[in-house]
Amino acid sequence: MAKSDGCDYFKRTSTFWIVFVILGMGYYTWIVFAPETIPFEQLGPFGSFCRHLVDNYAGIMYKGWWASWAIHVTEAYIALRVCSNKGISDAATRFLWAVQTFLFGFASLGLLINCCDEETFWPQMGRCRQPQKFSGLKCKEGCCSRSHPPFICCSALSSTF
Predict the structure, then answer these.
(1) So where does this one cross the membrane (predicted)?
(2) Which of 7, 31, 57, 83 is most buried per CB count within 10 Å?
(3) Tens digits of per-residue pLDDT, 122-148?
(4) Is residue 3 part of a domain?
């Protein structure tokens, strides 16, 4: 197997965000397109609030549903651009980032934006990766191991080095 230079980095978003976004968007879809099937009275105050939204703001909620998916599409496009800017060139990895960002939005995009910042630890390779676009950054010699968090491993040049 060929060694990776870090350009095919992918990280799955946390299970919390996966569940939260699926349930949230699923419920939002349900409340917009089939509100008559929701047992609002069994949901307590939340059900009363949702019934109020359905009865008084159905049109706004419908437009908001389309807007939320438009935002997810935009975020997926941004994810592709960020992949290009960060040097992630593998088509499969870029596809994974775009699909994950389309489905889970900022939870995925935030991971991508932060994955290759100025101070990055690549645990699968056991080393720090120097950013090409930034100067004044250096990995401290011998610190890049799986036991050191990234804030210890890589740092801006300072008087402590």
Answers:
(1) 15-33, 95-113
(2) 83
(3) 444 444 444 443 334 344 443 333 433
(4) no
